[in-house]
Amino acid sequence: MKCELSVNVDHVATLRQARGGVEPDPVPAAALALQAGAAGITVHLREDRRHIQDRDVHGLRALCGPGRGELNLEMALTEEMIAIACAVKPDRVTLVPERREELTTEGGLDVALHAKAIAAGAARLRAVDIPVSLFLDPDDSLAAPTRAAGATIVEIHTGAFSNASDPGAVERELARIGNAAMAFEREGLRVHAGHGLTVANVGPLLRRYAFTELSIGHTLVSRAVEVGLADAVREMLAAIGAARRP
Predict the structure, then answer these.
(1) CB–CB of 152/131 below 8 Å?
(2) Alpha-carbon torsion 168, 244, 191, 132, what sign?
(3) Per annotation, catalytic residue among 74, 98, 155, 173
(4) Closest CA to 143 of 88, 109, 181
(5) Active-site option among 11, 51, 192, 195
(6) Residue-level pLDDT, tens digit, the chain, 246 residues
(7) Is 44 a catalytic residue?
(8) DSSP assignment string, 59-127
(9) Catalytic residue among 4, 11, 44, 70
(10) How crowded is residue 130: how many other Cβ atoms within 10 Å of its Cβ?
(11) For this structure, is 195 an active site residue?
(12) What is the spatial distance between Cα 150 and Cα 133, in angstroms, rounded to a whole number?
């Protein structure tokens, strides 16, 4: 099965917000990514609107659609965000934990602690035909609770793997990811992955488990400074393709 790429354009908006102007605009950046072969676009509409703005989400909703790329809206499990998602109707919502002081999402949702709230939020989203994904740490014990909460997709947080340096730590994190992915799969969930992934580390990750989608942003926007976003996306797709070949 092919592994698809969802390009996170949050940091295009981060660059724009640094000056408070109108450029660069994440919507045309997303269009470039899709033209280069990405299957979808991911954005995180944070409560503090530190990068992506409401107008960006609406612009991306108009850009993406059947045959044009899937829009994945990452968001906290709050009344405000549920209402926005139900109005905008992205192709998928990924529920993520969110802390105001963090630079980026630091870990997965606590499914046990928030089980009732997740189930209620997922039910509201499903009622308007929005599939629900949960952003989770690589923990195989979360598989059954995730299914019970009403999610159909899980995105495994690969931050610890991406940050590992010595071979032993890398192998331990790959083992955790692989075990969790198999547990989620046994529960009938689609299994995606993301956070900190690069051209250098997608190969070992995909050889451990055949993810159907990777969500990647920071490294692509960083590389785009040097070669342009379209070429950065093509490089990543080539690395993904090479990893999946026998």
Answers:
(1) yes
(2) positive
(3) 74
(4) 181
(5) 195
(6) 789 999 999 999 999 999 999 999 999 999 999 999 999 999 999 999 999 999 999 999 999 998 999 999 999 999 999 999 999 999 999 999 976 554 455 678 889 888 999 999 999 999 999 999 999 999 999 999 999 999 999 999 999 999 999 999 999 999 999 999 999 999 999 999 999 999 999 999 999 999 999 999 999 999 999 999 999 999 999 999 998 655
(7) yes
(8) HHHHH-BTTTBEEEEEE-SSHHHHHHHHHH--SEEEE----TT-SS--S---TTTTHHHHHHHHHHHHH
(9) 44
(10) 19
(11) yes
(12) 9
Tokens representing 183 are 């547990």
Say which DSSP state 190 is in.
E
Residue 74 bears catalytic tag: yes
Single-letter code of the amino acid located at 114: H
Q: Which two tokens stand for residue 8?
A: 């996170």
Q: Residue 5 has which token pair?
A: 């790429």
- Residues with Cβ within 8 Å of residue 97, at least 6 apart in sequence: 76, 105, 106, 107, 108, 109, 110, 135
Q: Which domains does the chain have, with CATH numbers?
A: 4-244 (3.20.20.70)
Choose among 138, 54, 50: nearest CA to 102. Answer: 50
Using the structure block, give the residue that is written with the tokens 């940050």. 163
Q: Both tokens of residue 79?
A: 């009344």
